[in-house]
Design brief:
Length: 343
């Protein structure tokens, strides 16, 4: 069910990310929203860098510099939310790929989420939307074929990148229980692929060769960047609460994905692959840490039925179309029209 409220005010963190920037663009064009606060350390691409602190003439987006790693940001955020009468808070300040600056990443994602929730606790906006990932389920040999939203968030024993997101999610789940007046919605996105998005998976699949764990060929799942942006827009509009898997249409074995991408598979024993991955990660020659190899070993595929049923989101583009768009291959008849219809 969608909200028909006119004049809504939305605050968005992580506006420098693909999803954050797409949400700004879509809300800017939607007459139901009167003001959008872009909270980040840099102005979003939609605004001119020279005068980004104020909305552009006729525009609704206002950039406000906010650093979630600063210890006093709670009060700053609370003041902003109160002053601007923020109706909806969208928290998307999360990294799309791992970093060697693990302590800073922890401060941004785990501690930063604490700051955001502390600010929202006193103001209680009507709606709170968090951007998460299906990676929080973890790649595990005991995972079912399709993970539903109440499955355990296993994370990964060796991945700060994944575990910081698990901790942030758990904070938001506690906040939802303690503040029943706030409509809390968590979106767990499957790995996003497309022609413009940049993340751990797009970097991994951009390399000409890819490791294949000998004896393993797990199913893989993605969501097209335009489907992902559409789902986030739907979540802001909706009154639905709880966690939702945002996934694309269809799954494919990992080796089939590599074949579609034209990448060269390199079969490797697990122990060899981990040693090579550790070396390449330590020397910063690749953007995926050794822990990523588990996602090439075991299933981590989510069920999108709840999002279709309660959020009204159904993916439009197939996994094959998503892969071909990532490659820049010209779309089949009608595919461009579908993406444009969601924009």
């Amino acid at each position: 069910m969608s909200s028909g409220v006119i004049g809504r005010v939305v605050a968005v963190t992580g506006t420098g990310t693909f999803l954050g920037g797409e949400l700004l663009r879509r809300l800017e064009e939607d007459p139901r929203y009167s003001r959008i606060l872009a909270l980040d350390i840099r102005p979003p691409a939609l605004l001119p860098r020279s005068d980004a602190q104020q909305p552009a003439p006729g525009g609704k987006i206002e950039f406000i510099r906010v650093d979630l790693t600063q210890p006093t940001v709670d009060g700053e955020l609370a003041t902003l939310l109160s002053r601007h009468k923020v109706d909806t808070f969208v928290h998307g300040a999360f990294l799309s790929h791992p970093t060697h600056a693990a302590e800073w990443a922890h401060e941004l994602e785990d501690v930063g989420t604490m700051h955001v929730l502390n600010a929202c606790a006193g103001i209680e906006p009507r709606r709170f939307v968090m951007i998460s990932t299906t990676l929080v389920y973890g790649a595990h040999p005991k995972n079912p074929n399709f993970l539903v939203e109440d499955a355990e968030l296993r994370g990964h024993r060796d991945s700060r990148f994944v575990n910081d997101k698990v901790r942030a999610e758990r904070q938001v789940q506690r906040f939802a229980k303690e503040h029943p007046n706030v409509e809390v919605c968590i979106l767990r996105f499957a790995p996003i692929l497309g022609p413009t998005v940049s993340n751990m998976y797009t970097r991994f699949f951009s390399r000409p060769v890819a490791p294949v764990m000998m004896g393993h060929d797990p199913l893989m799942q993605f969501v097209h960047e335009q489907d992902a942006a559409y789902a986030l827009q739907k979540a802001v509009e909706s009154r639905a609460t709880g966690a939702f898997n945002i996934v694309g249409k269809g799954v494919l074995p990992y080796t089939t994905v590599l074949a579609l991408l034209g990448r060269v598979p390199v079969p490797m024993p697990q122990l060899v692959a981990r040693q090579v991955s550790k070396l390449l990660w330590a020397t910063q020659l690749v953007g995926s840490p050794p822990s990523f190899l588990d996602f090439l070993l075991y299933l981590c595929v989510a069920d999108g039925a709840k999002a279709r049923r309660e959020l009204g989101f159904a993916p439009r583009l197939s996994i094959k179309r998503t892969i071909l768009d990532f490659l820049g291959v010209a779309p089949e008849d009608g595919a461009t029209d579908v993406a444009r219809a969601q924009a």
